[in-house]
Amino acid sequence: MATPFKVFRDNQKILMVVFGALLMVAFVVLPPILQFGFFSQQAENIRGEVVVVVDDEELYRPDIDNLVNKYDIVGRVMAEAIGRSLILQGSPKAPMPPIPGLRIVPASQQSPGGPQFMPVGAEEAVLYYAWVKKAEELGMVVDDESVREFMRESSGGRLSDYDYNAILSAVTGGQGPGLNYDYFFEMLREVLTAQKLQALVFRDGRVVTPSSAWVAYRNMNRTISTEMFPVSAKDFMDQVGSPTNAQIEELFNKYKHQPANPAMNQIGFMQMDKISLAYVKGDIEDFVNAAKAEITDEQVAQYYEENKDSFRKPVLPSAEPEAPAAPASTEEAPAKEESAPMTEEKPATEEAKPMEETTEPASEEKPAEEMKKEEAPAEEKKEEAKPEPAAEEKPAEEKPAEEKPAEEPAKEEPAAEQSSLNSMKTGVQLVSFLQEEGEKPATEEKPAEEPAAEGAKPEEKPADPAPMETPAAEAPAAEAPATDAPMAEAPPVEYKPLAEVQDQIRDRLAQPIAQKRMSDALAEVRGVLQAKYEEFRYLETKSTKSPYDTDEIERLATSLGLSFGAMPLMDFYAASQSALAQEAIHVDYTFDQTSGLRTINRSMVAEAFQTKSPLFQPRLFPGASQSSMMFRQNIQAEVQYVFWKTEMKDGFAPKLEDVKDEVVAAWKQQEAGKLAKEAAQKLAEQIKSKEDLNKAATERKAEVIVAENITYFNQLSGGQGLSLGTIPGVEGLSQMTMEALFSTPLNGATAAPNLGEDVYYVAFVTAEAETNEQLRDNMMAAIQGTLPASVSQYASQEENLVTRAILLDFFDPKRIDWKIDPMDLDSSS
Prior knowledge:
Elements: H1 4-10, H2 12-47, E1 50-54, E2 57-60, H3 61-87, E3 102-105, E4 114-117, H4 122-137, H5 144-154, H6 161-172, H7 181-201, H8 210-221, E5 223-232, H9 245-255, E6 274-283, H10 284-292, H11 297-306, H12 326-343, H13 346-352, H14 355-364, H15 367-372, H16 375-384, H17 387-391, H18 394-403, H19 413-422, H20 427-433, H21 449-456, H22 470-473, H23 475-484, H24 498-538, H25 550-559, E7 563-571, H26 572-576, H27 579-583, E8 585-592, E9 596-603, H28 604-611, E10 619-621, E11 639-649, H29 660-686, H30 690-699, E12 705-711, E13 713-715, E14 722-724, H31 735-742, E15 749-753, E16 759-768, H32 772-782, H33 789-810, E17 816-818, H34 822-828
Antiparallel strand pairs: 1-2, 1-17, 3-4, 5-12, 5-16, 6-7, 6-11, 8-9, 10-11, 13-14, 15-16
């Protein structure tokens, strides 16, 4: 009987082969299988849930962190490279369009400017990554030489690869085993891929043809006056019949995949996505009013005393009625003061006393008579003044020596003024400038020297002719006593009374309290909503029933000083015209290296449509700044919202039966518009004067609109750009309207359409500020090697419109679908 051992011994070779094969399976095949199973599930749990979807690619929290870290490193290295290049007297070229994390600060009086690193946010990193994916989708490639050329230009040719490697080590501190120069090179290649695509989309609008340059200059600089009356398509609806089935089908097939856009006069039958919103609103004014009631009078008084300097009354320059007569009164006074410092005797002081008495008689004398007596008495008294410098003071002797070159001009009045002013180089000048207005002319007129000469008579013997100029030289000495006894003291500081500023103080004290209370209230509401939303989300249900009790949320909001509201189900164009869209807006700021500081108007309704956030997810608006790749503003908004979607309906291409009535209405509107255009053009051809226009308007029972001194564009405040000009009484004003009006010559007529092309204005140009010939001459004179600024501005404005249209068609914001609020990522990082 064969034993098991005998069987093994007889088949040992085969068994050894089988055992070896099993070992190979255990050590080679099983690990990947296990890793794909249990270990992959464990890794999935570590990664967490999907944060955002970009073009069907799901990104998790670690993926977002990697993107942020990658762009942060590139931004820090390039900022440091540009900074070192400037230190080495290089001429670095700033990246344009800018890259994430790098901002070039322009030089100003407060700052020398230069590169600055700005931390990259999660939303900005994902947006830039979407540009990278789009560039790769289009097949764009950045080779090694392009990357090296970018590094050379950014450093002004001053840094080598070794220098960049040293900067990378300094910036990262050697973090990460694989973070070396080669890895940084590839990160920079990815950044440049998106930058090159942006450079193609954001073109330079300043390159214009001669013809477009003239049109731009004319539209920017022409001012006209016109009279017009409307011809509406509504008046021709009765003349339009019904379309045939073929016409209906033709119009439907042409626009069935295009949504209707009333703002752009765009026909369309595509049904757009629709959403409805609910929101809780916090207004700082409500909280300020509540906080002001809690501020006590003692707190107001304490703040007033601690910050009293901020409530000073403004000091206005004095305007006394005696100011014009004061120069005559001060003519003799400084002269008598001259004798006092020269003699330093009692008689001199006695003469100084009557100074106040003599001011009034002196002010009564006519300046003309004094001017006549100037020449002779001045010379006599100069001779009498000779003894003073000889006998009295050595400084008095030095002064005549200094004034010798001024002997000739001393005979003229300006010379006396100049000598007295030029000699005041000590502290005397500062005090004299602080005197009343009546004292300033004392240094300007020579009659002030007469008493000085009289006071000098009894003192000293006559000296050489040279000291004849001493009175002129001693004019500053005559004002020296004025420094010892200033005529006018600084007025006492006056403060606004507490009763006048107490409301202002209450506002100041209540503002931080109100801001904190509003932030806490919104945070509490958002916390309640977020908790209920997380419960709803983790149930993984397909239910579209709201997890919130609307009445409960409204009661909570009211108790916290907030308000509750809702927006019904609408598509984007209808929602953009709603009251909520006009109210829930926020002005954000960004810095462009070519245009400087620019404003960005954000809309809560627009962001609700664009982000494609899931149902019932609470979001904060305005929240963090959306400024891309530039600086952010940390000032909290005065009005904030917590909003969430309550219903969503996807858009679809309808069937003809679903929208047949809309198609018929659109066809009739088109045909009526054509008839209105033909009628308006015929009237414009017949009108040769204002009388003709008024007659035609009377026949059509239309009101004439008179518009004077209108311009094509209006300049926005702060140099933020241009806005289309306005014409009171014209509805639906558009660029087509302005183009028709401003291309019409003086005493010419035209038919200008409105935005919807359903009203045509028959207009007659009655006046213009400058003719076309004058405008052309001005344009040619303004061209100094480059086009005028107005032309470049107009071209940039038009280019912005084109770029915006390209972006909407080329880069759909819906490509980025956030599953959570990106603000939560930034706040928790």
